[in-house]
Amino acid sequence: MLLFAPRERVPGEHRVAMTPDAAKRISQTGLEIAVEAGAGVGAAFSDHAYEEADVRIVAADDGWATADIVVCVRPPAAEDVARMREGALLLGLLDPHGDRARIDAYAAAGVSAFSFEFVPRISRAQGMDALSSQANLAGYAAVIHAASRFRRAFPMMVTAAGTVAPARALILGAGVAGLQAIATARRLGAVVSAIDVRDAAREQVESLGATFVTVESEEKGEGAGGYAKEMSEDYQRRQAAKLRDTLARSDIVITTAQIPGRAAPRLILADMLQSMKPGSIIVDLAASSGGNVEGSKPGETVEASGVLIIGHSDLPSAVSQDASNLYARNAVNFLTPLIDAENKRIAVPWDDEIVQGALITRDGAVTHPQLSPKDE
């Protein structure tokens, strides 16, 4: 049995799906591990480090063509997957709601593809939750990135020459990324506030020392799987009014609001930026799915009304070594139950809740109910 991790091809992507440490762990199941030459360089894992962990260094063509399992970070190109063995397993953040033609190509290749985006949010799957592990680091990196562009200090400082007021940070969305952004901004000394449509988020926000900004409404924002749901027009009007007032007092804004399978909600409109202080920073973590901020552009930094809007949504790559380590552990945790170590063979429990939840293609067909033609 061979597991292969390719070098990521997306520009700016520095993570790798299998690290030397993770390779040692999963090799105990009987798998042989191979990575493409140079796959780990962006995360500071040299080919020599892999070889010391008994990992083979191979060319891309050999890896794709001979692997029983391929683990990747970003969705691989259809032409790469076409080289895989029929019945082989593919695992990664496959962006299932993105390019449907690419998903159809995975099915046509005859591979069984599992997408981390669909791993069920149940207790047994917590160690497999790559979305959360990467969002955690994205929230951290967003604040650090904002601080590096901010022209003032974050903490309050009392000096002989006078007092430096603390920065004021506002976090939109208190999911995994948002909570880590709150914690990071607080560690740096900022005064932090947060908005979330879910009432359940209040306790978590306040436990981190931040202020929960309340939108007066009886509507509840809890959706399926712990995600926020799409809110009514009345709620959105109330939220916009509260947000407009809060933005005027904020120096740093981190937006994290996303709805699986849909465009990100537009929370900050162009005219709202005019009330913000010149030199303020917004990091839009939802830029790649439509953006929470009007005018944000995926992968770019733009300026509007004196405010910098940073649309770099691949922030886990900024901390690629830790991101790769966590991601690879998620992959090991997902794959280990699929391996019969005693008989040294792949034995996928197809009726398992986690397997069924994450599976998007099998036996030449797109299998996930969220990807059926009627939902397109």
Can you tell me about this structure?
It is a single chain. This protein has 376 residues and is of the alpha/beta class. The protein has two domains: 2-129 and 320-362, NAD(P)-binding Rossmann-like Domain (Rossmann fold); 136-318, 3-Layer(aba) Sandwich (Rossmann fold), CATH 3.40.50.720. It is 30% helix and 18% strand. The strands form four sheets. An eight-stranded mixed sheet has the order 3-2-1-4-5-6-18-19. It has a seven-stranded mixed sheet with strand order 11-10-9-12-13-15-14, with helices on both faces. Helix 1 packs parallel to helix 11, helix 6 (130-149) packs parallel to helix 7 and helix 6 (130-149) runs antiparallel to helix 11. The longest helix has 20 residues, at 130-149. The mean pLDDT is 93.
Produce a short descriptive summary:
The protein has helices at residues 20-26, 47-52, 60-66, 78-81, 100-108, 130-149, 176-187, 201-207, 233-247, 270-273, 320-335, 353-358, and strands at residues 2-5, 32-36, 56-58, 69-71, 89-92, 112-115, 157-159, 162-164, 168-172, 191-195, 211-212, 252-255, 281-284, 301-304, 307-310, 339-340, 345-346, 359-362, 365-366.
CATH class of the largest domain: Alpha Beta
- By oligomeric state, this entry counts as single chain
CATH T-level fold name of the largest domain: Rossmann fold
Structural class: alpha/beta
Count of runs of 4 or more consecutive helical residues: 12
Count of individual beta strands: 19
How is the biggest beta sheet arranged?
Answer: 8 strands, mixed
Number of domains: 2
What are the segments in which pLDDT stays under 50 over at least 5 consecutive residues? Answer: none
- The CATH architecture name of the largest domain reads 3-Layer(aba) Sandwich
Q: Quote the beta fraction.
A: 15-25%
Estimate the mean pLDDT confidence. Answer: 93
Distance between the termini: 36 Å
> Can you tell me the CATH superfamily of the largest domain?
NAD(P)-binding Rossmann-like Domain
* Rg computed from alpha carbons, rounded to a whole number of angstroms: 22 Å
The best one-word shape is globular
Summarize the amount of helix as a percent range. Answer: 25-40%
Strand order of the largest sheet: 3-2-1-4-5-6-18-19
